[in-house]
Amino acid sequence: MTLPQLSGSVLIADGGMETTLIFRDGFDLPHFAAFTLLDDERGRAGLRAYYEPYLQVAREHGVGVVLDTPTWRANPDWGALLGYSPEQLDDVNRRAVGLLDELRGSDANVLISGCVGPRGDGYVADELMSADEAERYHSRQIGTFGGSGADLVSAITMTYAEEAIGVARAAAAAGVPVVLSFTVETDGRLPSGQPLREAVEQADAETAGSVAYFMVNCAHPTHFDDVLAGDEPWVKRVRGLRPNASTKSHAELDEAEELDAGDPVDLAARLGELRRRLPALTVVGGCCGTDERHIGEMCRAVLAASG
Predict the structure, then answer these.
(1) C-beta separation of 180 from 214 below 8 A
(2) What is the four-CA torsion angle of 170, 206, 212, 186, rounded to 10 degrees?
(3) Helix, strand, coil share of the chain (percent; to 5)
(4) What confidence score (pLDDT) does residue 2 get?
(5) For residue 307, what pLDDT band results from cuts at 50, 70 and 90?
């Protein structure tokens, strides 16, 4: 399919799934793994209740919406830590797509994104893989998404380029569009230390341009807005932003015991200003600390900035 966000249409994404489910809805997510909720009816009901407000925001504003499956941790290492066999993970990933397909119904404005998370920690670049190793590691999950009807695959909170490149190659082999989303520290660099520009350019060069577009997630706009400046080709490849609500660093957030929901209006205003500078910015959503309030404000701000 042709992704509408590539033709200039503004779409929203959902927000901080795990932080919403833990801090607002009271779920216990071991190792930050939301996919475990698919295993019982209370958990599935909680996931439906999480997604439905984003569908409503999209309808209210007449925009499309990209919903991520709750599978950020549903890869071999994290799955094994949680007691899931490879076959059970396949089943979980299929059921995650199926849940969103039920919620979508016949609404063509809803896109299902198979969410791929990092093999390791989402804040730290350690135990690095080569691109070839990452392709092998992530291929089973991505292939499951491709065979289950996901419209695209999104690799979020990528901390170094090679893992993201491996994901993109696995998605190309599976024949499913892929989005790569890097996280950055307060200096605008990936946790690996690589500048965002270099990571995007490296990924494009080593995947034959197969990546549909790039995003930045799990960082506040104050951490990266000065990096996304100018009219260079790589900046135009960044079509999506899913910021944190908080201005805190990853290290500070890791130690936090309470949710920092930030200022939804200020966050939205920053996204609106970025849209004015970056006409290619067509997907806005949230990460840690954000919920439908933040996304509603972002949608209004970005649509207003779109003229």
Answers:
(1) yes
(2) 100
(3) 50, 15, 35
(4) 86
(5) confident
Which amino acid is located at 299 in the chain?
C
- Residue in this structure with the two tokens 């009816």, named with its chain if needed: 41
pLDDT of residue 25: 97
Instruction: Confirm if 224 and 182 have CB atoms less than 8 A apart.
Output: no
Q: Which domain holds residue 97?
A: 4-305
Of the pLDDT bands very low, low, confident and very high (cuts 50, 70, 90), residue 27 is very high
Rounded CA-CA distance 260/286 in Å is 13
| Whole-number Cα distances in Å, 203 to 48, 128, 150, 181 | 34, 16, 22, 11
Question: Hey, what amino acid is at 69?
Answer: T
Count of structural domains within the chain? 1
Strands 283-284 and 238-242: parallel
Q: Rounded CA gap, 281 and 233, in Å? A: 13
Q: Where are the alpha helices (DSSP H) in the chain?
A: 17-19, 41-61, 76-81, 86-104, 131-148, 161-174, 196-206, 221-224, 233-236, 250-255, 264-277, 292-305
pTM score, whole prediction? 0.97
* Beta bridge partners of residue 13, listed in sequence order: 66
Which CATH number do you get for residue 129? 3.20.20.330
DSSP string, 258-290: S-----HHHHHHHHHHHHHH-TT--EE---TT-
Strand partners, 215: 181, 240
> Which residues are CB-neighbours of 204 under 8 A, at least 6 positions away?
211, 234, 237
Read off the pLDDT of residues 43-56 as tens digits, 9 standing for 90 and up: 999 999 999 999 99
Contact status, residue 151 vs residue 1, Cβ threshold 8 Å: yes
For residues 305 and 307, what is the distance between their CA atoms, to the nearest angstrom? 5
DSSP letter at 15 equals -
Close Cβ partners of 164 (under 8 Å, ≥ 6 residues apart): 134, 155, 158, 180, 182, 199, 203
Residue 127 has pLDDT above 90, yes or no: no
For residues 280-307, average pLDDT: 97
- Which range has the worst mean pLDDT, 14-18, 113-117, 123-127? 123-127
